[in-house]
Design brief:
Largest sheet: 9 strands, mixed
Strand content: 5-15%
Structural class: alpha/beta
Helix content: 25-40%
Number of domains: 1
Length: 489
């Protein structure tokens, strides 16, 4: 682009109003992109979204990521962070020194005097690593030696949307690029017929504590919108508007796209709006996805023993099991970042009911995904992450006498995530919470440390992957973050 035109595009009030009057404006154009998925005539996907010239900064261990994000915050004290003292002190008030000066959600307010709650199900050690895993998660327990548990995660957010935004974009306020968008921007696209960044969502059947899936959880923020995640729907057509209208042949569609590309290129030269370039680029991707998406979602060639491994819901579109299998099929086809989001972990008063449902729907597919990747030789360079936006309080929310209504509130001060493959050490637990699973006691891992580590595994120095916006160079980890080298293989 002509530098003078680029300068005008950024600063000219006249050009702003011109674009608003003649072409719907950048925001409306972005919404059309979400609908149309549009792309540049004839250009291969890798050429449409090339990697930055200085990346990777070092040899990567991982080439792709599958993030199994558990919306609503799984309870670490009931799943992976075994603390015998919680059982010993069940029903006793939490000692003041554990909660003094700490901020909790408005549902807890001041935590002084809250009663400690023992784990709902018993824990056992598993595998050669001796990892402690609850009876809630028998399938995950079976792959304990493939997992790297981080038990000293902590965050600054106490509510869901800010917490999810913080983990995925590095900021509690929406508007920053998410992890998948940063990777697409930095490392480009390897798939010829599928997007670099895809998203799928699911909710357990009958849950009453589902979370809203906001689009900014997979947004591109101030990066061009071609880097945002493409959402695959949970019912009906996986991606809308891919098919040709009745009476429009592939040849006619190809001609239409070629003509549109020429018109858009003229407007791009006039206005210098990068979103026009995105529109051009994405039309071609939509054209290619007309054949790739039906092939992707055709499970007829999957062996029955593989389908059985993912569980009874694997063929039901929109379930977590189906999405896990799709994630494996997507990374096989070159997709760089797959974000699965499963809601329903917000158990303020349903530990004895809905926690069972959540684990039933997610435990087997999560473990199956790791096993499936491993047996196909993909786990070594595919990083799998499981975790939520924070943990849940070791103390009770509710009435101790009413067991059916037991719950736990939001807890940012210590929680657990696990990772597998992609260059992390298998069969280890890193970091520790205190004897009540309340606060980090050893080797704390802040959200920005976690993000820096993920980028490092993908060959990226988190301080060098930046984008200038409004006069400042932004990065995923803001101004913080240290790589947790002890978890690197």
């Amino acid at each position: 682009m002509n530098p003078f035109l680029a300068y005008q595009a950024a600063l000219s009030r006249r050009q702003f109003f011109s674009r608003s009057a003649t072409g719907i404006g950048t925001a409306a154009l972005a919404s059309l992109l979400h609908r149309d998925l549009g792309a540049a005539a004839g250009a291969p996907a890798a050429a449409q979204m090339p990697r930055l010239p200085d990346l990777p900064h070092h040899a990567p261990k991982a080439k792709r990521v599958i993030y199994l994000f558990q919306n609503g915050a799984p309870t670490h004290a009931d799943l992976f962070d075994y603390k015998p003292q919680l059982t010993a002190l069940h029903g006793k008030p939490v000692p003041d020194e554990y909660v003094a000066g700490k901020r909790f959600s408005t549902m807890t307010g001041v935590a002084t005097g809250k009663l400690l709650l023992a784990p709902v199900e018993p824990f056992q050690q598993h595998g050669k690593s001796g990892a402690w895993v609850s009876a809630f998660m028998p399938f995950t327990a079976s792959i304990a030696d493939d997992l790297c548990f981080i038990k000293s995660m902590h965050t600054e957010a106490v509510n869901h949307a800010p917490g999810i935004s913080f983990l995925l974009s590095g900021a509690q306020i929406p508007g920053r690029p998410t992890l998948g968008a940063w990777l697409s921007y930095g490392l480009g696209c390897e798939a010829d017929t599928l997007p670099s960044f895809t998203v799928m969502t699911s909710v357990s059947r009958g849950t009453s504590c589902g979370q809203i899936f906001y689009d900014f959880y997979w947004g591109s923020g101030f990066l061009p919108s071609k880097y945002q995640g493409v959402k695959f729907r949970g019912s009906g057509e996986p991606v809308l508007y891919l098919g040709n209208p009745e009476g429009v042949s592939p040849a006619v569609r190809r001609g239409i796209l070629d003509d549109l590309a020429q018109l858009n290129e003229i407007k791009l030269r006039e206005a210098g709006d990068p979103e026009i370039a995105t529109r051009i680029a994405q039309y071609e991707m939509a054209y290619r996805m007309q054949t790739s998406v039906p092939e992707l979602t055709d499970l007829s060639n999957e062996p029955q023993h593989v389908l059985d491994m993912y569980g009874p819901d694997v063929k039901q579109q929109g379930t977590f099991a189906y999405n896990c299998l799709m994630a494996r099929r997507l990374v096989e086809r070159g997709v760089r970042f797959v974000q699965l989001m499963h809601a329903g972990w917000d158990q303020h008063n349903s530990l004895n009911t809905e926690l069972y449902n959540q684990c039933r729907d997610t435990d087997q597919p999560s473990a199956a995904l790791v096993k499936d990747l491993k047996q196909r030789g993909l786990l070594d360079d595919t990083l799998v992450i499981w975790g939520g936006e924070f943990g849940r309080t070791p103390f009770l929310q509710g009435n101790l006498a009413d067991r059916k209504r037991w719950g736990r509130d939001h807890h940012p001060y210590a929680f657990t995530v696990w990772m597998a493959g992609g260059g992390v050490k298998p069969g280890i637990s890193y970091g520790e919470s205190d004897d009540l699973a309340m606060n980090v006691a050893k080797d704390p891992v802040h959200v920005h440390d976690f993000q820096a580590t993920l980028l490092h595994l993908l060959g990226i120095d988190h301080e060098k992957l930046t984008f200038k916006f409004q006069g400042r160079y932004f990065r995923l980890t803001d101004v913080h973050g240290e790589v947790v080298r002890a978890v690197l293989a």
